[in-house]
């Protein structure tokens, strides 16, 4: 009797048939993945997810009828029941809505020119419940779209609530996360072990009621805790 875990159930959502076909081919070739459905717009993705219960939805942003951001909010937002993980795959240079997608509940994002191995790893990463927020891409995103990342919640109390909830060291780690640093980079910068950083990250998420690292970055920018960019 095999002890292998069940395959990751993947729903592919993109308005371009050729792109969907490419994704399906890539994921179907993986022994630990099963493509359970396709959708060509966000409306179809929401309906399909309700029927098929995928573990991960690979989501485009710019689509007709219902875009990826709105679909992500319906699938994985705060009001969603048993939400799937949403991995946004976007064209960075033309799409300024990645930040909005992360706020809507996406677990991470990749660029459309990412190699197949990176795309497969991205699905596995979010399926494990981890945020896919590549440090280099995060820094690029923050620098390129700084105007979209300035504080949306300027109330002093929101920031003070976070400051009160966390220890000084946890606040320091949160700021490093918001800069796009990986655990290893944070460990080197703060002269602690990666395992200790992982513990701090878990505590931060728990204390602030955040689902993952992506939400931590979003919160840090919303309350102006992250350092200015540029």
TrEMBL record:
Residues 9-127 form the Response regulatory domain. The modification 4-aspartylphosphate is found at residue 60. It comes from the Bacteria. Residues 159-224 form the HTH luxR-type domain. GO terms for molecular function: DNA binding. Keywords: DNA-binding, Phosphoprotein, Transcription, Transcription regulation. This is Response regulator transcription factor. It comes from Actinomadura decatromicini.
